[in-house]
Design a protein that fits this description.
Blueprint lengths: L1 E3 L9 E7 L6 E2 L4 E6 L4 E5 L3 E7 L6 E3 L3 E9 L56 E2 L5 E2 L1 H10 L17 H17 L6 H5 L14 H16 L2 E9 L1 H13 L13 H15 L5 E3 L4 E3 L5 E3 L1 E3 L2 E3 L2 E2 L7 H16 L13 E5 L18 E14 L5 E14 L5 H16 L7
Parallel strand pairs: 14-18, 18-19
Antiparallel strand pairs: 1-8, 2-4, 2-7, 3-6, 4-5, 6-8, 9-10, 11-20, 12-13, 14-17, 15-16, 19-20
Length: about 450
């Protein structure tokens, strides 16, 4: 029985095995964790769905394999049926047929599989030497099925792509990088210099080479796509937060749980999330995303919040934030942030959303403009709060605690007036924070 690299999301093309929990020769039972996968967004353990003995490991720890690739083989494997239902036909009758491992997005996690067997999607690239293997170019370089499909769709010559996959294979990310490089060349003239040309500018012992992991490659590709395809424009405003600070301090001082102990403390970010969600409810035309030949307008405000982790950024989503209390938002964000830093988020927790918030105020950044994350049409960049001089109605000067926020907008979805209306609504809720608690 062949164990396949599972699909961890619609946009995930490959995964990296970071740890094997079983060794060759170990007995495996259904539910035993076989290995841990790391993608560009999440890290999670993959359990076995059949009993047997681990006969072969084809993708070692530290190696990357495309979705659907064979990573291991179980010998003498049998699927254990549930007590309340008839079991599937013995797998001995269909030898060497891949099984589908359960993933967080698969119905197998919530409902029993009637028969956990699928036809091999890579049959068209089988070779006589192996049961599964990538096709090869005339030069002898192996190419995974995903890479070949992407190259065919984009009309990319595989012979000119440098492989970065395990055992010298050309994998999906290599083709995506070539596509991005070609797009950059068309948009900006000559292609970017090669790594060797860049390295030649510096003394050999003056730097350390750090290979790109899947997360950094994905972030780079998406940022290039966003800046080249989305017509950004930016709106900035100074927002007074004196009332918000006073309300937050009072709420944190009196907040207690049922046992009388101090409850979860509210952060400024909790108020920002709720304020943006209510602003989208007030300006429903801005609660939308771009879908190429149409605009999708949503009935609830799902707010993504950028969380910095080692090696990059992930954006977990607070769904229906306009209907949740500040305490609920605070507790949810603490949980999402902790699991994001531990690479334990589920794919569904970072998918979708209608907009996002990026807050660099805690780092002392006064203001900045963020890049929109497709297919979102907006992203709100939040700067640090500071006491600033402002003119009073009678011509005097007083100091007011303010923060600068910048709303990046996709002009295909949101024009200037609509973006200004959304930013004004957000400013209203921040400057009248009692409205956030009603």
């Amino acid at each position: 029985m062949e164990i396949l690299m599972p699909q961890l999301g619609e946009t995930v093309a490959e995964g990296k095995i970071t740890t094997w929990f079983k060794a060759i020769g170990d007995v495996v039972k259904p539910g035993d964790n076989l290995f841990e996968i790391e993608t560009d967004k999440v890290s999670m353990e993959v359990p076995a769905t059949a009993a047997g003995v681990l006969e072969e490991i084809r993708v070692e720890a530290g190696e990357v394999a495309p979705v659907g690739a064979i990573v291991a083989v179980l010998s003498g494997a049998t699927v254990v049926p549930r007590a309340s239902e008839p079991g599937p036909a013995p797998l001995a009758a269909v030898p060497r047929t891949p099984i589908v491992l359960p993933t967080p997005l698969s119905p197998a996690t919530t409902a029993p599989l009637a028969r956990p067997i699928m036809l091999d999607p890579f049959r068209e690239v089988r070779t006589p030497e192996r049961n599964f293997g990538p096709a090869k170019l005339s030069s002898g370089v192996a190419v995974t099925p995903l890479a070949r499909r992407l190259a065919g769709e984009a009309r990319i010559d595989l012979g000119g792509i440098a492989p970065s996959g395990p055992h010298g294979r050309i994998v999906g990310r290599d083709v995506e990088a070539a596509i991005a490089a070609r797009a950059g060349s068309r948009a900006h003239g000559p292609a970017a210099p090669s790594p060797d040309r860049v390295k030649a500018l510096y003394e050999p012992d003056s730097y350390e080479e750090i290979p790109l992991d899947s997360m950094r490659r994905t972030i780079a590709a998406r940022l290039i796509e966003a800046k080249q395809t989305i017509p950004h424009f930016y709106l900035s405003a100074d927002v007074a937060i004196e009332r918000l600070d006073a309300l937050r301090e009072e709420a944190n001082a009196v907040s207690q749980d049922d046992a009388g102990r101090p409850a979860s403390r509210l952060s400024i970010n909790d108020f920002i999330i709720k304020a943006l969600a209510l602003a989208l409810r007030r300006v429903p035309a801005a609660n939308a995303v771009w879908a190429e030949d149409r605009i999708l307008r949503f009935r609830r405000a799902d707010i993504g919040v950028a969380v910095a982790i080692e090696g990059g950024v992930v954006t977990p989503v607070v769904r229906g934030a306009e209907t949740k209390s500040l305490l609920d938002i605070s507790a949810e964000m603490k949980d999402l942030s902790a699991r994001a830093r531990a690479r334990k988020l589920k794919p569904a927790e970072i998918a979708g959303g209608v907009t996002a918030i990026s807050n660099l105020g805690m780092h002392g950044v006064r203001e900045f403009a963020a890049i929109i994350n497709p297919p979102h049409a907006t992203i709100l960049a939040v700067g640090a709060a500071a006491r600033r001089p402002t003119e009073t109605a009678d011509g005097g000067i007083r100091f007011v605690s303010q923060m600068t926020v910048t709303l990046s907008c996709d002009h295909r979805v949101i024009d200037g007036a609509l973006g200004a209306e959304l930013l004004a609504a957000f400013r209203y809720y921040i400057e009248h924070p009692v409205r956030l608690m009603i």
